[in-house]
Amino acid sequence: MYLRPITEKMTDTTSHPPLVDQYGSLSHNASQIQCDGNRSQVIEECELPLIDLSYLRSQDEKKRQACAAAIASASSEWGFFQVVNHGISPNLLGEMRKEQMKLFELPFKNKASCGLLNDSYRWGNPRATSAKQFSWSEAFHIPLTMISEEACYGELSSLRYGSDGEIRNSNVQTCSNSCRRFSRESGTSRRVFGEVCNESTCFLRLNRYPQCSIQPEMFGLVPHTDSDFLTILYQDQVGGLQLMKDSKWVAVKPNPQALIVNIGDLFQAWSNDIYKSVEHKVMANEKVERYSIAYFLCPSYDSLVGSCMEPSVYKKFTFGEFRKQVQEDVKKTGHKVGLPRFLL
């Protein structure tokens, strides 16, 4: 399978990062590039296990236990599940989506150089050594330590004050607080993480995947596992998220009414491989752009990760050691190795 000529340009707009140029510089042949066979596999569409979290707050103990068992089963079999009645306001998520779209509509030079949101703007993949490691996307990967400060928001004051102009917690801060509260109260992490995950260690990532007319099998986000304990994802109706299930890629059917939760590497290590941190990716869309918001539940770098049972599959390690090893592997090989580096 061959790509279209790389000289084909996207819609001309100053908001787009120079993805075409960076992708082209990574390609060995600027006119025709052979697509990696693993990226062209036939996939199936699936609906993730759907869990009603209101049952965790039920007065009926059997309903609470059944809900907890459903979470554990999905975490083990899929590594992913979706939740409704999660306690995060739909109005807040809607506000975040509108402000997110306005944020990404800013000129590229503004996003890249004006220090918005703790100077957290990222695009493409600066560590990519080949075209198959390239991500057709842009994002604000926001550490949460400074989001209460006015300087963090620059010209996009509505992210700080909300659409009504009232001075209060920003949409970004309110969303991150809601996600952290959800992760602790939903039964997925309450007993595991205690106080090791807070605003000084967690991240909120605002993603945009521009439409891609270069070729139909472009990664919006390359295959990977998440390095955190837990990820909470709010996505739109476009689709594009795919995960590895039974040794094949399956496409996740979007459900705009639900949040997606997935297990990260640290949770898999803590559970002694009972819960799975599953490889996943995002595929770019040729016709429409895609938006998502992800909250990453991370500990401090000196937090020690150990198993909940013995004998342990993994040696004990700190989150800082894990991140350092991941970065070294990506620098040397272009891809993440992750947990296999820490097997006993």
Explain what this protein looks like in three dimensions:
The protein is of the alpha+beta class. The chain has helices spanning about 20-25, 60-75, 90-105, 110-115, 115-120, 155-160, 170-185, 190-195, 265-270, 320-335; strands at about 45, 50, 80-85, 120-125, 140-145, 205-210, 220-225, 230-235, 240-245, 250, 260-265, 280-285, 290-295, 305, 315-320. The protein has an 8-stranded mixed beta sheet with strand order 2-3-11-8-13-6-5-4. The chain has a 5-stranded mixed beta sheet with strand order 1-10-9-12-7, with no helix packed on it. A two-stranded antiparallel sheet has the order 14-15. The longest helix is centred in the first third of the chain and has 17 residues, at about 60-75. The radius of gyration is 20 Å and the shape is globular. The relative contact order is 0.16. Mean pLDDT is about 85; it is low at about 1-10, about 30-40 and about 165-170.
